[in-house]
Design a protein that fits this description.
heterodimer; A: 101 residues; Helix Hairpins; 3 helices; B: mainly alpha; 8 helices; 79% helix
Chain lengths: 101, 168
């Protein structure tokens, strides 16, 4: 069917690296959150590419699970951001040390 | 033909992802993230996976990204002035080391994976039975327990979000 697996896998690795770089270098909590979504998308691409290579439905099932986890994460994460913004007036992640002891 | 389309869409996806982390304005970041989701959907189509492409457009670009845009507009954020060094950061050694590390990891993984062809989604079965039918068979016959656990997770997330956002 498709003979270009390595292109999709290299693309997935590049998107994942961009996401990791955004997570470690940005300060805005929502952009960090978007970078996590980029990483999830890259993993989805690798799952679909491997699912095609193996001709099995397992990778596609994993992609659906990842999408559900991303939705749950969006709901909880944005609720936490709204709460933090209401409490402190900013969502700069350098300003938060509530969980430090 | 498929190769050309994959390269073009891949370049667009990488460019959109870079613009997500380089934009100063958070709303622009979210809109570039929508573009990234749409190019990923095209890549799923190129991989012959129409169902996942439709899910990507509806769930990611439609639901999750609109939810994030809603939250950004509720928070009334100003452009932060204390992160003007993103573009400088991007060209330092850290980024290059990360790229090389992940690509080598991926090549290692591709080399080690056995690639056992199972064949329950072979091209013939895909064209006669249909992709959604095959995926549904997999979910409700073999993956029933994870599927139910995902529904429990979503319910817990909704309850938790309502509990967190409640005014008390």
């Amino acid at each position: 069917m498709t003979d270009y697996q390595s292109i999709y896998l290299a693309l997935s690795a590049m998107l994942f690296v961009i996401g990791v770089f955004g997570v470690i270098s940005r300060k805005d909590a929502i952009v960090v959150f978007l970078c996590i979504e980029i990483m999830l998308g890259a993993v989805n691409l690798a799952f679909v590419a491997f699912s095609r290579a193996n001709q099995s439905a397992e990778g596609i099932f994993m992609v659906m699970c990842v999408m559900a986890v991303a939705g749950a994460e969006a709901a909880i994460g944005l609720a936490i951001f709204v709460l933090l913004y209401r409490k402190t007036g900013t969502i700069n992640i350098d300003k938060f040390n509530l969980l430090k002891w | 033909m498929e190769l050309i389309a994959a390269v073009i869409c891949g370049a667009a996806a990488v460019a959109a992802a870079l613009l997500v982390i380089l934009s100063k304005n958070t709303v622009h970041s979210a809109l570039w993230m929508v573009a990234n989701c749409l190019t990923l959907a095209v890549l799923f189509l190129l991989l012959n996976s129409q169902f996942i492409a439709v899910l990507q457009v509806i769930v990611y670009a439609g639901a999750i990204m609109m939810f994030i845009l809603y939250a950004i507009m509720m928070l009334n954020l100003r452009a932060n002035s204390d992160e003007g060094d993103i573009k400088k950061n991007l060209f330092t050694g850290r980024f290059v080391i990360l790229v090389l590390f992940f690509i080598s990891l991926l090549i290692l993984g591709v080399g080690l994976s056995p690639m056992a062809v199972k064949g329950d989604m072979a091209p013939l079965a895909l064209s006669t039975i249909g992709e959604v039918n095959l995926i549904a068979n997999y979910i409700f016959l073999e993956g029933l327990c994870p599927f139910e656990l995902v529904s429990v997770l979503l319910t817990a997330a909704v309850v938790g979000a309502v509990f967190l956002a409640r005014k008390d």
